[in-house]
């Protein structure tokens, strides 16, 4: 066995096609909309925020005064615009842009909690029916501080028992389907804490919600650790979408992240 640390990678995010976006804005509102676009593009830190704002502004055609006779003034900056949307709770525009994360070395405890979030997500999880582990990875929660040796002995014991049961089967004579069935049966004796991996795609409305729920002080240690990392990445990469999130330090060096605008 080896002790591991959960890892978080932001492996993909929504991108705009600048040429198509420009063509579309020209078709929609000629010079007014094109002027807005060139200002917004140069001020924007990420495509995700630009896409979200375009989606929002199309609702009232509020790329500039004059495009919609009912609109007599517009919010000037992207920060103001997105903050107003968050404050009003017009959360659906935050569904247009998504991020894809790879969470590695996370436990089955973590993945089980993560997949409870159903809305606005896509999930692909390592199949422990198909993947037969050759050794166990294990993250040591802070609660086991000072108990590393004891935990190691327990996990190694499970690993030994797993290996001896595994050896009782003649894997070389099995077809793939039989291997899958036995691998699936064997995983039942592996601990919930065994390290595995999952790819998680979610839109920003969902990411905001999950950060708030899963970095709460009462949330489980591992998911709090992972979503603290997610929150820091999102604040850095999408400062406007996450502008209302504030953090409070916890003794285990993670943070509780609370949005001013809840249930966006
Ligand atoms: C600290 C903590 C402790 C927990 N303890 C337990 C526990 O002991 N036992 C347990 O079973 N679970 C527990 N959970 C899981 C929790 O109950 C939720 O299942 C999980 O957090 C998913 O959140 P969500 O319901 O907001 O769903 P999401 O899928 O994230 O949905 C987002 C939002 O969409 C809306 N929505 C989603 N689905 C529907 C629907 N079908 N109908 C109407 N509106 C919908 C809701 O507004 C919801 O908040 C815990 C979670 C936390 C954070």
The major β-sheet equals: 4 strands, antiparallel
What is the string of helix and strand elements?
EEHHHEHEEHHEHHEE
Give the overall pLDDT as a whole number. 96
Radius of gyration: 24 Å
Distance between the termini: 43 Å
Helix content: 40-55%
What oligomeric arrangement do these chains adopt?
single chain
Strand order of the largest sheet: 2-3-6-4
CATH class: Alpha Beta
Q: Within the CATH hierarchy, at the fold level, what is the topology?
A: Gyrase A, domain 2
Defining key terms:
264 residues; alpha+beta; Gyrase A, domain 2; four-stranded antiparallel beta sheet; two-stranded parallel ribbon; 8 helices; 8 strands; 16% strand; binds flavin-adenine dinucleotide
Commentary on this structure:
It is built from eight helices and eight strands, in the order E-E-H-H-H-E-H-E-E-H-H-E-H-H-E-E. With 264 residues, it is of the alpha+beta class. The protein has a single domain (1-264), classed as Gyrase A, domain 2 (2-Layer Sandwich), CATH 3.30.1360.170. Strands 2-3-6-4 form a four-stranded antiparallel β-sheet. The longest helix is centred in the first third of the chain and has 26 residues, at 18-43. The structure holds flavin-adenine dinucleotide. The site of flavin-adenine dinucleotide (FAD) has 10 residues, from helix 7.
């Amino acid at each position: 066995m080896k002790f591991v640390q959960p890892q978080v990678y932001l492996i993909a995010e929504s991108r705009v096609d600048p040429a198509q976006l420009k063509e579309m804005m020209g078709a929609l509102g000629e010079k007014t909309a094109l002027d807005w676009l060139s200002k917004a593009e140069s001020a924007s830190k990420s495509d995700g925020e630009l896409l979200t704002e375009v989606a929002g502004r199309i609702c009232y055609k509020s790329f500039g005064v004059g495009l919609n006779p009912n609109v007599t003034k517009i919010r000037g900056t992207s920060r103001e615009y997105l903050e107003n949307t968050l404050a009003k709770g017009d959360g659906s525009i935050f569904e247009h842009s998504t991020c894809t994360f790879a969470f590695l070395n996370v436990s089955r405890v973590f993945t089980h909690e993560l997949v409870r979030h159903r809305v606005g997500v896509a999930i692909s999880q390592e199949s422990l029916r198909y993947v037969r582990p050759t050794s166990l990875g294990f993250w040591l929660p802070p609660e086991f501080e000072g108990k590393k040796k004891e935990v190691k002995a327990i996990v190694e014991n499970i690993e030994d028992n797993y290996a001896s049961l595994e050896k009782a089967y003649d894997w070389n004579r099995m077809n793939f389907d039989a291997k899958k069935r036995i691998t699936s049966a064997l995983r039942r004796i592996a601990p919930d804490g065994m390290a595995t991996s999952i790819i998680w795609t979610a839109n920003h409305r969902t990411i905001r919600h999950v950060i708030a729920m899963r970095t709460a002080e009462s949330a489980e240690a591992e998911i709090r650790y992972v979503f603290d990392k997610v929150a820091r990445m999102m604040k850095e990469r999408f400062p406007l979408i996450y502008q209302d999130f504030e953090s409070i330090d916890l003794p285990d060096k993670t943070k509780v992240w609370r949005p001013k605008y809840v249930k966006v």
